[in-house]
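Slide 14.
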Amino acid sequence: MALAQDMTAVDHVDVMIVGAGLSGIGAAYWLQQDSPDRSWAILEGRDDLGGTWDLFRYPGIRSDSDMHTLGYSFKPWTEAKSIADGPSILKYVRETADEFNITDKIRFQHQVVKAEWSTEDGQWTVQCEVGPDATPALYTCSFLFMCSGYYSYKGGFRPDFPGEERFTGPIVHPQEWPEDLDYEGKRVVVIGSGATAVTLVPAMADKTEHITMLQRSPTWMVSRPSVNQVSEGMRKVLPEKTAYAITRKLNSARGEFFYNMTRKKPEKVREQLLNFTREALGEEETATNFTPEYNPWDQRLCLVPDGDFFKSIKSGDASVTTGQIESFTEKGIQLESGEHLDADIIISATGLNLVTVGDMDFVVDGKTVDFSQTWTYRGVGYSDIPNMASTFGYINASWTLRADLVSQFVCRVLNHMRDTGTDVVTPRLRPSDRDMPRRDWIEDFSSGYMQRMMALLPKQGDREPWTNPQRYSLDKKVLLKATLDDGALVFSTTRAAERVGA
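Slide 15: predicted structure.
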């Protein structure tokens, strides 16, 4: 292996988890629960756990999914608000890690930069940079479980705006929110119309002189109560775990039903959503700024808890402008329409930078992996890459619904290897799969942050198990119950294991 000579492997575990966010903490729980014979550890690049919920610090940071489905299946969400703020979610993740004795097995400030698989040795060598000085360190593992999310923690996506050097105030991206940003009594323009912008506007509106959301085109929005009254009613008469499980099942089914309706009857769903917005803001505002050209769920819907975003607009504290930027000026933004938006602060809520798998390099037997040339195995593994799985959640439902299923699937695979006396599992195309058409990793989803990266992501085929269906009801069947002896998962024994057996 082409590794620096001054580095030596300092530790070995059966399963190495990369990332200590929602997915990584959940993965550790399921390994303890379903594969207790396996040793494991977590490598986390940052100095605290929580992932997204520790990274983002902008005003109003919250989930855009309900916590009965964004929470873990094994740990009930007990707070009244199911549309929760970031600090509450971070507290929940920390409680989970402490309750199940996971925290002590997290190695913080361990930024993974490279992973190399050796068939000869039957293991991965994981290269890290540790601490503020980026001290090199190596770990080895038999199985690599990537739980590091789908976007880069190094910085968000921000286009180059014409004339931005002329603007005299701060330009802020929400992923790098300054702790000392003073926006009280200031004029603020938020560029973007996604979940972050829709969160920022009502959270800041009470303190600013005025806040404007500037969008190129409208986004679909839906208002929901932050407190689930049905769930709260059940909690009064049922055990906590029972009430949570029922609510989780109901909410996941309702979400999938709604998504399916957007695919089957998009015009009907369009009209329903527009009617909700008309009731909140009136016909003129809805027609001008809240009628998207695309169908619901062609891009992710924005959740408006308790109608807070709409209330800020009705109060006059906030407004929405639809238009194209001509140039930044010293005092704001000049639009192509001729309108000028005065601003003391500009916030570029323009999205994320997606990464393939872990924002790091992968090498298999000396060959660098190009994930765009691989096929996904059920959205979990990748063709010709041994002993590796990754968690990628849903774009049309809560991330953790799928993270839970992926972790249980990984445990099924590990247990199958134990029971069959094998130590390597590799997804490989069967002869009948080699003529499959190459389909995008995610289909029917036009959001810019996804489309910018789609060409670099793994491909899916037109048949199982080489698909990434993004359907919770189907994933429950195939990830929890489908046979592992499907001809596409190849189980084998390494030469290293054979030598030990001899």
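Speaker note: Residues 9-154+355-501 form a domain with the FAD/NAD(P)-binding domain fold (CATH 3.50.50.60).
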